[in-house]
Amino acid sequence: MSYPYVLLSAAVSLDGYLDDTGPDRLLLSSPADFDRVDAVRASVDAILIGAGTIRADNPRLLVNSAERRAARVREGRAEYPLKVTVTATGDLDPEAQFWHTGGDKLVYTTDEGAERAAGRLGASAGIVPLGPELDWRALLSHLHDVRGVGRLMVEGGGTVHTQLLQQGLADELQLVLAPLFVGDPAAPRLFGPGGYQAGRLRLTETRRIEDVVLMRYRPTAPGAGPLPTAADRHWLRTACELAAQCPPSKTAFSVGAVVVAADGTELARGHSRESGDPVVHAEEAALAKVDPADPRLAAATVYSSLEPCARRASRPAPCAELILRSGVRRVVTAWREPDTFVSAADGTGVLQKAGAQVVVLPELEELAKEPNRHLRG
């Protein structure tokens, strides 16, 4: 499955509460920040909110700037981003502003909710049933593969934000902190209770906007199972970009690799033919920089743009064996090794036979192949 880049956007008070709902809601953002949000909306392909937010806030969810809308049209895009909502029950108000402003609208719901939503909305929106229960991975895959959404902005509410972050599907969190205390224990919080991925989020930007502060965070903790997370895509993309640093060779692939601890700490990175060694492989170069006694290796993930090799002539141990010796038992890769130099290479099989988990993200295969175009004629 391929997913869009998922950006969560929210504003909170100093004591951690979201905007109050209703006509007398407390607006936490400043005018300048509202304009920033408008610019972000103009940059994305789709905007998503939960059905509860439609009922509570009755938003229009528009790009307000005529200049930004005109720029979208000049770029060959729709004047407004696709507007998306998600509901388990299909309980939607057909009179809400959401349906009567902006461009196309889409509802993701359950099989049961689809019938109710169709009866209420008619032709106001497209309706996509996801099965007996809501499935965020199926939703994101449909948005990407069927609707062509490459970048999705999620504006809430708290339940939607919680589910996407807990399932490791959020690529970025844009959080605005307002200099206010709400003090109401009944006010909604940004995130709910439950299990979140381990590790600290990485702060990528802070910016003062009038009297509020924008903070941008990226989750970096790898996934812990066969289902990929947004952090997995981030680290594998980094490995693919490292492959572009390899000195070109007609007799070996250009590969990048990153070793990441379970808490999202980068332990090491490497690429093929690093430091003038004409035969070193990417995984080999990265693992050589980590203390073999480092206890974090057992729960770490190795990201490699190309499937780790199972056989090689240049060194006694292939990369699949080096990974297993290190104690790592999870590998994420973008591209299965072709027969260019070794027939029937199967590093994945070697790893899996030894109990390691291998996750393949085919959406990054072309990026992994790019530094190797010269080998494919």
Structure overview:
The protein is α/β, with parallel strands linked by helices. It has helices spanning about 30-45, 50-55, 65-75, 110-120, 135-145, 160-165, 230-245, 280-285, 320-325, 345-355, 365-370, and strands at about 5-10, 45-50, 80-85, 105-110, 125-130, 150-155, 170-175, 200-210, 210-220, 255-260, 265-270, 300-305, 330-335, 355-360. The chain has eleven helices and 14 strands. The model has no long low-confidence stretch (mean pLDDT about 95).
Summarize the structure.
The protein is α/β, with parallel strands linked by helices and 377 residues long. Helices cover 26% and strands 20% of the residues.
Rg over C-alpha atoms, rounded to the nearest angstrom: 23 Å
Strand order of the largest sheet: 5-4-3-2-6-1-7-9-8
Mean pLDDT over all positions: 93
What is the approximate shape? elongated
Structural class: alpha/beta
Q: How would you describe this structure in keywords?
A:
single chain, alpha/beta, 9-stranded mixed beta sheet, 14 strands, 377 residues, 5-stranded mixed beta sheet, 20% strand
Q: Topology, pairings included?
A:
Elements: E1 5-12, H1 31-43, E2 46-50, H2 51-57, H3 66-74, E3 82-87, E4 105-109, H4 111-121, E5 126-129, H5 136-145, E6 151-154, H6 158-166, E7 172-177, E8 202-209, E9 212-218, H7 230-243, E10 256-260, E11 266-271, H8 282-287, E12 301-304, H9 319-326, E13 330-333, H10 347-353, E14 357-360, H11 365-369
Parallel strand pairs: 1-6, 1-7, 2-3, 2-6, 3-4, 4-5, 12-13, 13-14
Antiparallel strand pairs: 7-9, 8-9, 10-11, 10-12
